[in-house]
Write a structure and sequence with these properties.
- By secondary structure, the protein is mainly alpha-helical.
- It has one domain.
- The chain has a 3-stranded antiparallel sheet.
- α2 packs antiparallel against α3, α2 packs antiparallel against α13 and α14 packs antiparallel against α15.
Length: 447
């Protein structure tokens, strides 16, 4: 019969139930480097919408502060929506990934139904709720990112090993893009395509495997771009907007004049001239031109720095989540960060005359209820990721500290008992996803 070693007297005080309670009670913390830029951009947006929309409101006879009040209402709703997502466990969001994808397709179809969809300037992109309208694609972006993040978790190995697993998300993206072409909304189409490609690479697909879909997709996109005359004029007018300053180059030529007037430090807050009914969409798509005119080159640099900090921090949080095997959280962070980076880059590029004009707003800054709600929801999800990452790091640190204290208080004969806590540590760090041992993503690098 085996000789059982007596348990040390100090062992009964090490109660696993109480340890689990202490770990579960550990709160996380929202990342201040995400909160800071988000709040700063939102505050800047309130100031600049107030400055740029007064003349527009007076011209439309709706009052000088109509657009500011509307912006504040949607910003309040967006903050509430972000607060809900900040308090929602990622596991419960991940479990509803397929439902969110179905809702994405349904929303893009609803805009074509009479009585539900609404046409504005020849585009059928809005859902009509009577008292207000909502641009469906703003909700679709976030729901699609959640679904794609969950898909990359479930097929993290297969997505780089088989063509079928890699092409499935591209097929879903193609379906969404086809519905966007019918609206038409070429700007959001390009954004969803870029987010899909970026998340696939960050999810582990090697870059050489992306060449095939790219070679097939580029001619299709080129054909779509030149299929309509107005798209061709947009693609060519930005190269020399002053060739037709009262026609196809009207928006961009006035935006460039506003930027030129701002010089280094601007003409002063509220002193813009181009916003006085010269620059179309001064409070939405071309709000950066008003910022450049009133706050100058310095103000534009501050805006770019805030977006760079927000996006860079989001990508860093995504990498930390993947390192801790919290893959769903990491991919959500990647997706939201790519969204913010691409949309802000395109909006800034359009205002500076570097890109063709697109109907994309400057996140958190431009006036626009749908965009503001979608951006706030996305940032709420990103802040939730940072919260759960911080909570997981603190749990792992507590486990390691408890294991170290227990091993110090045990005799040498009982050391294997302390060592048995290592699997629990690894399990605690694995995250919310349906995990099994898999090959880690290579972030686009070759094997």
């Amino acid at each position: 019969m085996a000789n059982w070693l007596p348990l040390p007297r100090s062992l009964p005080s090490f109660r696993f139930g109480q340890q689990a309670t202490r770990l579960d009670a550990l709160p996380g913390r929202y990342d201040p480097w995400l909160l800071g830029p988000s709040i700063a951009l939102a505050c800047l947006g309130v100031v600049m919408v107030a400055s740029s929309s007064i003349a527009i409101g007076v011209g439309l006879d709706v009052g000088p502060y109509y657009f500011l009040v509307k912006h504040l209402i949607f910003l309040t709703m967006g903050v509430g929506l972000a607060a809900v997502l900040m308090r929602t466990e990622l596991k419960s969001i991940e479990q509803r990934d397929r439902l969110l994808l179905v809702c994405s397709v349904a929303l893009l179809i609803l805009v074509f139904l009479p009585g539900i969809g609404k046409t504005v300037n020849g585009a059928r992109r809005w859902l009509n709720f009577g008292f207000t309208t909502f641009q469906a694609v703003e909700a679709v972006k976030l729901m699609y990112i959640v679904w794609l993040s969950s898909y990359l978790v479930r097929f993290r190995d297969e997505v780089n090993a088989t063509w079928g697993a890699m092409l499935k998300p591209l097929g879903v993206a193609a379906l969404l893009m086809a519905l966007l072409i019918l609206q038409p909304d070429f700007g959001s189409l390009s954004l969803i395509l870029a987010i899909t490609a970026g998340m696939l690479v960050l999810g582990g697909v090697h870059l050489p495997r992306m060449f095939g879909p790219v070679l097939v997709g580029l001619p299709v996109l080129a054909f779509i771009a030149i299929a309509e005359p107005y798209r061709v004029s947009r693609l060519t007018s930005f190269l020399d907007p002053f060739r037709d300053p009262f026609g196809t180059g009207y928006q961009l030529s006035n935006a460039l004049m506003a930027i030129g007037r701002g010089e280094w430090f601007g003409v002063g807050l509220g002193a813009s001239v181009q916003k006085l009914s010269y620059l179309p969409e001064a409070h939405t798509d071309f709000i950066l031109a008003v910022i450049a005119e009133e706050l100058g080159f310095f103000g534009v640099c501050v805006v770019v720095a805030l977006y760079s900090l927000l996006v860079g921090r989001g990508l860093w949080i995504g990498l930390k989540c993947v390192e801790m095997r919290r893959h769903f959280a990491g991919y959500c962070a990647f997706g939201v960060s790519l969204w913010m980076a691409l949309q802000s880059f395109v909006s800034i590029g359009v205002n500076l005359g570097m890109l063709p004009t697109k109907g994309l707003t400057l996140p958190l800054v431009s006036s626009g209820g749908s965009s503001l709600l979608g951006t706030c929801a996305a940032l709420g999800l990103l802040l939730r990721v940072s919260y759960e990452l911080d909570r997981a790091e603190r749990q792992v640190a507590r486990l390691r500290g408890d294991a170290a204290q227990t091993s110090v208080g045990m005799p040498s004969t009982a050391q294997p008992i302390a060592a048995s806590t290592a699997p629990a540590t690894a399990t605690a760090a694995r995250g919310t996803s349906r995990l099994r041992d898999r090959v880690e993503p290579s972030f686009g690098r070759g094997a």
